Amino acid sequence: MKFTGENILAFTEQFPDDKLCLAYLSELKWVEGFICTNCGHTKFTVRKANLARDCNRCHHIESPTAGTIFHKLRFGLRKAFGIIFEMSATTKGFSSSQVAKRYGISRTTAWAFMHRVRTAMQSSKRFPIVGDVQVDEFVFGGKESLKQGRSKDVKKKKIIGAVELSEKGKVKRVYFNKIADYSSKSLSCIFDNHISKDAHVLTDKWTGYAPLAKRFNIEQKYSDKGSSMKQIHTVIHQLKSWLRSTYSWVHQDHMDKYLNEFSFRINRSIFKQTIFHSLVSRMMICKPLTYQMIKISS
Ligand SMILES: [Zn+2]
User: What superfamily does domain 132-255 belong to in CATH?
Assistant: First the structure.
């Protein structure tokens, strides 16, 4: 039942229609068993038409997608599953206009759904990175300001990143956060959200990091044109070219979601077999998001 692998043919065979996708969500939703949200009863009858569960005591009816991020989806689940599969499997990423064309939905609908997927890609922050860690900050973009034609918006987006290294010095996990400026307070978000107090953190000589050394194990080195922190600079380069090639227009308010998407795939690159299943599972425990909420959230 649980979908594994990266094969698109196997994927389309397992999910040929909306009903089988719904059955998949239904199994995920009630994997621990059914408890009526209205009265707490555990016996139910399944309604064949939409797989909703009808409580045997109070007859409260709950659909598999109720209370999840799939609630009130404006298109079929087969399309939704296809988009999730591609977003989880491809390292290239793709824009909402490409998705709109490929799946026959409007660009706005595609855009909103992809943001729902990205919301589910957000880190739980439960597993801070440990061992050897590199932290650096950088800027990205400026193109959106030209499009909007507002000179006050001609600002590059500031981002801070952290990379966890394996014993062999390879990139294991990455996290990024949008920041307002380079003050210690702003820089601290990546430390507080994602870095263990025990980690050995390497940064450049920027003074903003110094106050953080009271709480974290930080070593500051001259960046020497980036040669002292090669791994993080490679990842930053990958991130920038991914953002540039896929999303020519990334609004400041949504930057964190794109950063989630990029990090999610890198951090699960060794679990590619189950990446689709884990992403759908996450979406089933994400609360519904309206279009308005997506539009204004940052
Ligand atoms: Zn009930």
Answer: Ribonuclease H-like superfamily/Ribonuclease H (3.30.420.10)
Interatomic CA distance for residues 191 and 21, integer angstroms: 39
- Could you tell me if 213 and 147 are in contact, meaning their C-beta atoms sit under 8 angstroms apart? no
pLDDT computed for residue 142 by the predictor: 61
Q: Please tell me the distance between residue 281's alpha carbon and the centre of ligand 1 in angstroms.
A: 24
Angle at 243 between CA 199 and CA 74, to 5 degrees: 105
pLDDT of residue 12: 95
Q: Which residues contact 220 (CB under 8 A, 6 or more apart)?
A: 202, 203, 204, 205, 206, 209, 210, 213
pLDDT band of 168, cuts 50, 70, 90: very high
Q: What is the pTM of this model?
A: 0.87
CA–centroid distance, residue 38 to ligand 1 (Å): 5
SS (H, E, C) 51-100: CCEEECCCCCEECCCCCCCCCCCCCCHHHHHHHHHHHHHCCCCCCHHHHH
Instruction: Tell me the domain boundaries of the chain.
Output: 8-32+67-120+284-296, 132-255
Ligand 1 centroid distance, CA of 56 (Å): 7
